[in-house]
Fold this protein.
Amino acid sequence: MIHHWSAERGHRVQGITGIPYYYRLFGYEMALDLGGRRLGYESHVRKLKEGEAELYRIRPATVADLAFITDLYECAIRRHAIACVRTPEIFKYELSGQSPNNIDYYIPMIIEDQTGEPVGYFQYSQFLRGGAVLAVWYEVKPGISWLEVTPAVVRYLWSKGQEYAQLEGKPCTSFGFQLGPAHPVYEALGNDLPTQRAYAWYLRVPDLPGFLTHIQPALETRLAESIAAGHSREIKISFYRQGLRLVLEKGKLTTIAPWQPTPADGGAVAFPDLTFLQILFGYRSYDELHQSFPDCWCDNEEVRTLINILFPKKASDVFPIS
């Protein structure tokens, strides 16, 4: 029924989280990063030296900050293959419309320099989650050092965690950044922080040729910015029981159509079952799929290069609206 409603509304992709394997029964494939975080402990909290003052101030966000937050978000999602579209109205809802009693309510904060100029933004949990206080969104504007700002944010989170510990009557043992599998703050914090690996979204694409046609401009941009700019080539992609035929003419995708593999023509590249969705959404590279699935193969280096250009691996962090 949900698939029927989704089709009526013109949705091209459905996503769901939850039970391992189960949703594969309904045409879904785990094909997009879900979660992923780094945790730190008291030993990772860089304390201020005697007489040293914070370089950055942290205050609650206000309606006047919405334009800054929106611009910062637009800058941040350029790192991602897939991200939620978030408007100033959505940020305003999270700021003043969402109930603080919502389990997914996260407190929005602004980071300022000594002159009062906003340089960053983050949101953090309003209670301890597994003994940790978590930031679920954190970004600084271009030209600002993550190495310089992050210690102040960590100290703020750790302090809030100790406040929560007193209120909740249980210890705060850690702070964390739940920002997907890759994020600049992870580099700023160093490699010795424990990592919680990301889970995955299940995705379903009921009309694969239609979806590829929908994202055709992005695919052609990838070609134009690569070593295959202006390239022409037919690519037959096998999923064993069915397949796709792509035709490139001078860097443009002139054909995206269903194609049926046969014993005489198995295509130039193959992805078993729904594993193609993993490469389509940047979750895995062709080489990773080939290593994991022996029946994922490519018999032509030219096609392999084109597949890597059209469908590169790239991290995502889909932070839905609650």
Summary: Residues 46 and 114 are 20 Å apart (CA to CA).
